[in-house]
Amino acid sequence: MSVVIDRDGRPVSYEAAVNLMDDELRELLHANLAPCSEQEFFDAYLDAHCVKYGEEFRID
């Protein structure tokens, strides 16, 4: 299981995070960022999600 660190410093399952991501936004970022690390992708997704939805992407 791959783990990334969220903005609060908590470990998060990368696979679980990907399953909860907006498909369109995830694919757009993948097209623009690949290849990159899972942490780099997750960080970029957090920023993009906040811009698109006006709120943080949270996994509780």
Automatic annotation (TrEMBL):
Q: Which organism is it from?
A: Bifidobacterium catenulatum PV20-2
Its recorded name reads AcrIC5-like domain-containing protein
List residues of the AcrIC5-like domain: 6-57
What InterPro entries does UniProt report for this protein, alphabetically? AcrIC5-like_dom
